[in-house]
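Researcher: Please predict.
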Amino acid sequence: MKTILTFVFIIICSTKLFSQELHIKQSAAFEDILLAVKTDSISLFKNSFGKDISEEIMTGKGENIWVEGFNAYKDLLKKDFSDFQISDFSYIYDEKRSTIKIFYKGKKYGSMEVIEEEDKWKLNER
C-alpha cells in the first residue's frame, strides 16, 4: 500500500512539474512576437529581444535588419500556423537551460532561450 501511495504521489508531482501552461511570465516575449505578427508591429517585435541580442542584430546592419527579421518571423509563423491565436500556444519553462518549450495546440513546436532583464522576460536568441 505504501508503495502504491508513493507511486501515485510521484505521478501527481511530475505531472504538475512538467505540465504545459497557457501563459507563464517567461513566455511573455514570445507572446509579444506572436502579437507583433498579428498586429504588424515592428516596435513590439524589437522590444521582445534582450539587450545583447538587440546589439548583436544591430551591429553594422542598420534599422532595416529589424524589418527583415520581422518579415522572416511573420512568414515562418504564418506558414507553420496560418491563422493562429495566441491562446493556441502553451509553454514549459526549463530553469536549468533558461529556455521555454513552446507547444502549439499541445504539440511541441520548439524552444527558445529567454533572459530576465529589468523585471521583464526577453528572448535571448534570434
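Model: Residues 64-81 form the longest helix (18 residues).
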